[in-house]
């Protein structure tokens, strides 16, 4: 719920509550005042009639038959309300009446009770007009409250909306702080100042992290490459031909160094993906079907060594995707290597590619964990594997970078492992 809507609701509730209370009090006040006027009129008529009777004069003739009623039988004295039929309108009309007993006089020899009446139609009409005016005032008041709130939203809240738009479009990769202006409203000015300070810190920290990542990748990769080359040269030394223990130790050291180099490259790639260090301008049209065929051809020795059969189904022609060439190659390499390495001798790998999906399905051991966990870092199918366990995590980050969907599905029938990348 927006802030304007919330405040408007409170304003409307307060206004309606006050209106109902004021209308009720005003109605009761007007009703009481009008009835008091009617009662005073009836009392004045009673005094006039009593004076007439005391002088020995006849009772005055009423203007209407309903206004005065005489009866020799006793009636309840005082004020009361009644309904009488209006012969013209054909409906019941409310009356206020006053009943009193005439004093005995020369013209009145027997007791007599007189009832004076006054129509309350005029009173009801006045109350209806008052209520109509109150309802109209409420409508105008509510409309004014809503209008002024929206006017305030457009005028006073304009700096806040500008700040939100700047935050939505802010890109840390531009290496520039927000640079929000200082509005005349103090609260919005403090907010923009805090956001400007925060964005400057983010840019500074991001630049430091980017430089550290690049320096660390460069400075550590070079010594690793030198160590790996020296170990390979050392393994070719004639002195080791007769020293099997030393040759074995050096071979294990070389294997660990190669593994460390692969781990370093994978972590560097993950860090660059998380920090969005691949500029969109570096993306080029990539024919994914051709890149997939090239990658499968390069993996033929590995497929033969592991006795795995790979079948490729690609729907021609496929549109090119705007991708970073290195990321596209890394995505295919990690998915295919995962399907081959976690297979068994005589197993199968089925690859399907069309304009909507890339699906790689392979046979393999049954799973005992949630397939979604294998997208986590250093999570492996087999704990004894020499793989660093970063392949699927890298694939997931590449898909997230380009807005692709990726999922891992395991089917019990045939122990099929399926990795599916949705392009749209």
TrEMBL record:
<dbReference type="InterPro" id="IPR003661">
    <property type="entry name" value="HisK_dim/P_dom"/>
</dbReference>
<protein>
    <recommendedName>
        <fullName>histidine kinase</fullName>
        <ecNumber>2.7.13.3</ecNumber>
    </recommendedName>
</protein>
<keyword id="KW-0812">Transmembrane</keyword>
<dbReference type="InterPro" id="IPR050428">
    <property type="entry name" value="TCS_sensor_his_kinase"/>
</dbReference>
<dbReference type="InterPro" id="IPR003594">
    <property type="entry name" value="HATPase_dom"/>
</dbReference>
<dbReference type="InterPro" id="IPR005467">
    <property type="entry name" value="His_kinase_dom"/>
</dbReference>
<dbReference type="InterPro" id="IPR036097">
    <property type="entry name" value="HisK_dim/P_sf"/>
</dbReference>
<keyword id="KW-1133">Transmembrane helix</keyword>
<keyword id="KW-0472">Membrane</keyword>
<feature type="transmembrane region" description="Helical">
    <location>
        <begin position="12"/>
        <end position="30"/>
    </location>
</feature>
<feature type="domain" description="Histidine kinase">
    <location>
        <begin position="215"/>
        <end position="424"/>
    </location>
</feature>
<dbReference type="Pfam" id="PF02518">
    <property type="entry name" value="HATPase_c"/>
</dbReference>
<keyword id="KW-0418">Kinase</keyword>
<dbReference type="InterPro" id="IPR036890">
    <property type="entry name" value="HATPase_C_sf"/>
</dbReference>
<dbReference type="Pfam" id="PF00512">
    <property type="entry name" value="HisKA"/>
</dbReference>
<keyword id="KW-0808">Transferase</keyword>
<feature type="transmembrane region" description="Helical">
    <location>
        <begin position="126"/>
        <end position="152"/>
    </location>
</feature>
<keyword id="KW-0597">Phosphoprotein</keyword>
